[in-house]
Amino acid sequence: MIMFVPCFAAAAVPVASWDFAVEDGGFAASGDTRQWEWGVPAAGPGGTDSLWATNLDGPYLHDAVDY
Questions:
Q1: Residue 46 backbone dihedrals phi, psi, to 5 degrees
Q2: What is the DSSP letter of 46?
Q3: In the chain, N or C terminus with fewer CB closer than 10 Å?
Q4: Which of 43-49's residues contact partners 24+ apart within 8 Å by CB, and which partners?
Q5: For residues 50 and 17, is the Cβ–Cβ distance under 8 A?
Q6: pTM of the prediction?
Q7: Burial call 26-45: b when 16+ CB within 10 Å, e when fewer
Q8: The dihedral sign for the CA sequence 31, 33, 37, 43
Q9: Which ranges in 1-67 belong to alpha helices (H)?
Q10: φ and ψ at residue 54, rounded to 5 degrees
Q11: pLDDT tens digits for range 9-54
């Protein structure tokens, strides 16, 4: 006997969503050096939207424990 059970893929529903171009999402930098920053990067791939990144205007520190 062969049974056929139809399966329907449900649309993925996001649990949470943040628009970092508008606000920092309520996040805060922490850790050893706190090199995570929210803002407009001074260099990098195009666009001028705000984002979270390590050290927006210079190189990041290696082997740092930041979150």
A1: -25, 180
A2: S
A3: N
A4: 49/20, 49/21
A5: no
A6: 0.67
A7: eeeeeeeeebbbbeebeeee
A8: negative
A9: none
A10: -90, 125
A11: 677 888 888 888 889 999 999 999 889 999 998 887 777 788 898 8
- Here the tokens at position 7 are 């399966």
- Secondary structure E strands in the chain: 36-39, 51-54
Largest CA distance in the chain: 67
The pLDDT of residue 17: 87
What is the residue whose two structure tokens read 């740092």?
A: 64
Spatial separation of the C-alpha atoms in residues 63 and 40, rounded to whole Å: 24
Return the amino acid letter for 56: L
